[in-house]
Design goal:
The structure is a single chain. This protein is α/β, with parallel strands linked by helices and 313 residues long. The protein folds into two domains: 4-85, Winged helix-like DNA-binding domain superfamily/Winged helix DNA-binding domain (Arc Repressor Mutant, subunit A), CATH 1.10.10.10; 89-313, D-Maltodextrin-Binding Protein, domain 2 (3-Layer(aba) Sandwich), CATH 3.40.190.290. It contains ten helices and eleven strands. Strands 3, 4, 5, 6, 9, 10 and 11 form a seven-stranded mixed β-sheet that branches. Strands 1-2 form a two-stranded antiparallel ribbon. A two-stranded parallel ribbon has the order 7-8. α1 crosses α2 (19-25), α1 (4-16) crosses α3 (30-44) and α1 (4-16) packs across α4. The longest helix is centred in the first third of the chain and has 29 residues, at 60-88. It starts with a helix and ends in a 17-residue tail after the last helix.
């Protein structure tokens, strides 16, 4: 690899087209400059300048290389700024996963404001459930993620988490269901209804909380169909397959054929937490701080708090 110093000498000589003036600009004597250009030409295997006793002109190879060398030197000069920006978290790439439910809540606003405040950060977004996100963290495919879980569930070892959102669970009903005539429901009304629910593997703490509530009330959930994504669950409800427990943010998904109702005697809620690896890159920490600040400024949302850590076995 040719040193950048030799390329800088080439550019100065190309601008001056005079060895004496170029050497003066470079604060060196003419002989070392002549030797440096000759060495550069030998490495390239082509002349960069055409010399006579009275003039110095760029050779075809020199004319072709000059714009590229200027870009190279500009990029090299820009490296300290890029390093400082990366260290401050204002540039780089953030690979972010998220569960579908938060896309109907504050996530779009958070992403919009983060991109506006940090135009040097490239966002790579991926919709994924908790189980997929844990695999992606383990393989190094994502930097942070929003996950859905039961209230107060512990954080897997090796990850840090911050609760971004807490919301009640509401019931999604087919719009022709007799219960839609009521503005408020009780658990007794829905306890025997066929249920559309996500598999336990994608949100075990929330699945257990829902099933546990049934059992605590002396009921057994009739699981009619399972689906991974909240949008799919709501679509199956629209098809009349059953009813479903969904985060209240899903009420923003106004799917034809679906009606949402709160249950007056069911205290079930769910949390959406932002999780990231311990020792995360500065850009990840900047995103976490941005979301925390944005959430704190929103008086409509409950204040978040750190989650308990699950001890490694």
């Amino acid at each position: 690899m040719t040193e950048l110093r030799a390329w800088r000498q080439f550019v100065v000589l190309a601008e001056e087209l005079h060895f004496g003036r170029a050497a003066q600009r470079l604060n060196i004597t003419q002989p070392p400059l002549t030797m440096a250009i000759q060495a550069l030409e030998r490495k390239l295997g082509a002349p960069l300048f055409e010399r006579t006793q009275r003039s110095v002109e760029l050779a075809p190879a020199g004319r072709a290389l000059l714009p590229e060398v200027r870009r190279l030197l500009q990029a090299a000069d820009d490296l300290p700024r890029q390093a400082q920006a990366a260290a401050a978290g204002v540039s780089g790439r953030l690979r972010l996963a998220f569960v579908s439910s938060i896309a109907y809540g504050p996530l779009p606003a958070w992403l919009r404001s983060f991109r506006h405040a940090n135009p040097g950060v490239v966002l790579a977004l991926r919709e994924a459930t908790l189980d997929i996100q844990l695999e992606a963290f383990a393989s190094g495919e994502i930097d942070a993620g929003f996950v859905l879980h039961a209230q107060g569930a512990a954080v897997p070892p090796g990850l840090q988490a911050w609760r971004a959102l807490r919301e009640p669970l509401v019931m999604a009903l087919p719009d022709r269901h007799p219960l839609t005539t009521r503005r408020s429901l009780t658990f007794e009304c829905v306890a025997s209804e066929p249920l559309v629910i996500f598999p336990r593997s994608i949100a075990p703490s929330l699945f257990d909380a829902i099933v546990g509530h049934y059992r605590a009330r002396g009921a057994t959930p009739r699981i009619e169909q399972e689906a991974n994504q909240m949008q799919t669950i709501v679509n199956l409800v629209s098809a009349g397959i059953g009813v479903a427990w969904v985060p209240s943010s899903l009420m923003q998904l106004q799917r034809p054929g679906v009606v949402y109702r709160a249950l007056s005697d069911v205290p079930l809620s769910c949390d959406t937490s932002l999780v990231w690896c311990e020792g995360a890159y500065p850009v990840v920490k900047r995103f976490v701080g941005h979301v925390q600040a944005a959430q704190a400024q929103n008086p409509q949302s409950p204040l978040p708090h750190p989650l308990p850590q699950k001890k490694a076995p």
